[in-house]
């Protein structure tokens, strides 16, 4: 399994196609919490379940101030067809050209097979990786790790706030 | 390894021995074809292990892809309020290929449950909260698709074919002798 970028590492910026005529860069998301879910391929059964679960858990991510993006090496038209077929309510980014370039920057590219690892990253408002996880490629990692990481960030934040409130009082 | 975060309690739907050696918790969706296949396997598992095993079913409806899974889960909870959870559960899986809201009324009628009361329960989402709390508990436990099984609290990452489940359950029984 690949060594994915560890917590505390600044998340490498990217600029990827999110629809046939739109690009999205990580920088544009500054100030938001971002969940990146790298997965091997559209349409494959395990990813299907994984993304279906994330789709269903989306309100939980959003209520914690986080935006979710799926990333694979599939092309933008493939993503579009897949997202429509599965009724996905979050965006899929296309790490298509140069193939797997962003996945490689995150340590989440499987060179031998030419696909992304099944890797998860939670990135904080400042663009620093707060949590990362690489699952065995055949095991769907679920959403519990992501939610736990977002909850820890929230706890830290409220703890910080209450501390500063005490100081100013 | 993902661990079941919500322990079994009185609110769970269970079958099997109170002093069972092993517990199996399934998170399932009534419209998921894999769950329908697993439902048949679970029956065989219950026969195989008898009172040595305690089985619980929790809801994990993926309503974005399965529009009937939500009402079906709510209808099962409605039946539960009348002591007929497992009858409704079995009927829904037995009729899954033609699952629809009208079918739920037919099944309720066949169980001599009030169809108008079911209609009211579905319209007001009386049991939606109950279903959603199963779902969220499942998410926090690492349920990653349907069906997901937890054997003695550990997520089972193998297949759900009969031999796969039997060997995982047997392994769990021998590695964790009941205290």
Describe the structure.
The complex is a heterodimer of chains A (169) and B (179). With 169 residues, chain A is α/β, with parallel strands linked by helices. Helix content of chain A is 36%, strand content 25%. In chain A, the strands form three sheets. Chain A has a five-stranded mixed sheet. Chain A has a two-stranded antiparallel sheet with strand order 1-2. A two-stranded antiparallel sheet of chain A has the order 6-7. The model of chain B has no long low-confidence stretch (mean pLDDT 95). In chain B, helix 2 runs antiparallel to helix 3. In chain B, strands 1-3-2-4-5 form a five-stranded mixed sheet. The two termini of chain B are 23 Å apart. The longest helix of chain B is centred in the N-terminal third of the chain and has 17 residues, at 33-49. Chain B is an alpha+beta fold and 179 residues long. Chain B has a single domain (13-175), classed as 3-Layer(aba) Sandwich (Glutaredoxin). The interface between A and B is medium-sized, with 21 and 17 residues.
Quick summary:
Chain A is of the alpha/beta class. Chain A is 36% helix and 25% strand. Chain A has one domain (15-168): Glutaredoxin.
Element layout with pairings:
The complex is a heterodimer of chains A (169) and B (179).
Chain A: E1 15-19, E2 22-25, E3 33-38, H1 45-63, E4 66-72, H2 76-86, E5 91-94, H3 101-105, E6 109-110, E7 115-116, E8 118-123, E9 129-135, H4 144-168
Parallel strand pairs in A: 3-4, 4-5
Antiparallel strand pairs in A: 1-2, 3-8, 6-7, 8-9
Chain B: E1 13-16, E2 22-28, H1 33-49, E3 53-59, H2 69-81, H3 85-94, H4 101-110, H5 115-123, H6 128-140, E4 148-151, E5 154-156, H7 162-175
Parallel strand pairs in B: 2-3
Antiparallel strand pairs in B: 1-3, 2-4, 4-5
Helix pairs in contact in B: 2-3
């Amino acid at each position: 399994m690949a060594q994915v970028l560890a917590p505390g590492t600044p998340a490498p910026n990217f600029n990827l196609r999110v629809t046939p005529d739109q690009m999205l860069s990580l920088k544009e998301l500054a100030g938001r919490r971002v969940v990146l879910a790298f997965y091997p391929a559209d349409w494959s059964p395990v990813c299907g379940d994984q993304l279906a679960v994330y789709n269903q858990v989306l309100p939980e991510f959003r209520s914690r101030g986080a935006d979710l993006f799926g990333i694979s090496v599939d092309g933008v038209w493939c993503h579009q067809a897949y997202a429509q077929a599965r009724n996905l309510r979050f965006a899929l980014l296309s790490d298509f050209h140069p193939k797997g370039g962003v996945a490689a920057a995150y340590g989440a590219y499987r060179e031998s097979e030419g696909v992304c690892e099944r890797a998860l990253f939670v990135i904080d408002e400042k663009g620093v990786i707060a949590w990362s996880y690489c699952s065995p490629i055949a095991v769907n990692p679920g959403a519990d790790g992501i939610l736990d990481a977002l909850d820890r960030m929230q706890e830290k934040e409220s703890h910080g706030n209450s501390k500063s409130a005490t100081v100013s009082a | 390894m993902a661990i079941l975060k919500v322990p079994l309690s009185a609110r769970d739907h269970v079958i099997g021995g109170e002093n069972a050696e092993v517990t199996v918790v399934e998170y399932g969706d009534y419209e998921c074809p894999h769950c329908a296949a697993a439902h048949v396997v679970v029956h065989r598992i219950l026969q195989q292990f008898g009172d040595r095993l305690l089985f619980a079913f929790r809801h994990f409806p993926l309503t974005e892809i399965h529009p009937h899974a939500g009402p079906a889960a709510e209808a099962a909870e409605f039946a539960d309020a009348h002591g007929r959870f497992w009858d409704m559960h079995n009927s829904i899986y037995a009729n899954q290929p033609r699952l629809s809201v009208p079918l739920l009324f037919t099944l309720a009628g066949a169980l001599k449950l009030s169809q108008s009361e079911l209609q009211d329960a579905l319209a007001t989402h009386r049991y939606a909260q109950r279903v959603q709390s199963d779902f969220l508990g499942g998410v926090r436990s690492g349920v990653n698709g349907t069906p997901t099984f937890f054997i003695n609290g550990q997520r089972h990452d193998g297949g759900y074919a009969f031999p796969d489940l039997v060997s995982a359950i047997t392994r769990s029984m021998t590695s964790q002798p009941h205290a």
